[in-house]
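BUG: 3D viewer hangs when loading the predicted structure for this chain

Environment: internal workstation, default settings.
Expected: structure renders.
Actual: progress bar stalls at 90%.

Input used:
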Amino acid sequence: MTHVLGPQEKALAGSGALARQGLIARLDPRLRIVMACVFAVVVVALSSLTALFAALAIALSLLVMSRLPWRRTLRRMAMMDGFILVMLLLLPFTVPGDPILVLWGLAASWQGLWQAVEIALTANAVILAVLVLLGTLEPVTLGHALHRLRCPETLVHLLMFTIRYIDVLHGEYQCLRAAMKVRGFRPGTNWHSYRSFGYLLGMMLVRAIERSERILGAMKCRGFAGRMPLLQEFTLARRDVTFGTGFTVLCLGLIILDVA
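Structure tokens produced before the viewer hung:
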């Protein structure tokens, strides 16, 4: 099996053609992966609010350079923020310190508020940078780049197959749900609904196993022997070296700003 990339491949973040016009899309995918990991590690290690605000500003600058549709990207970040919103609201009431206010007998502390702000800034800076640097990569390109970075082949294959067959399994789920609706199933809080969803989960597992066996048989018929030949080659250009150097300097600046 060989993967050949075309000019209109689908990106992980569904960014469309707009993302391919920016500077980030022209960088070496290997460099983008390394820079995303370095930036994430540096930002997670920061503790100063000034440095965290600077990290968020760097992530926003990457968004501008990538020419991604900023409304769609920020909407995705808002979805992520919704998951941590409850935790951020509870932190001021669970961390001891100087009280801000008392609500229903619970005291909110300034220390908890600052920790909540730090978590919010860290999460948003890291997620935004990852969306910009990696979210615009086509899945097969991401797999090839990880392979060139000497990542374990098994993990690379698992990533590529997972991305490829998520839609297939989702289609199987939709077919099963449609069949349940045709037979008059209406979900509710009763044992019949619980059993029905259990049967649905079991059928999904059975169909996934059957589909994987058929796929493996088809791959063996086409000469698959545990490795996928990768035709795409990556080369570092001058802009890659320039971007990597500048980005590394910015990360070092964040560390110095945090320590100072």
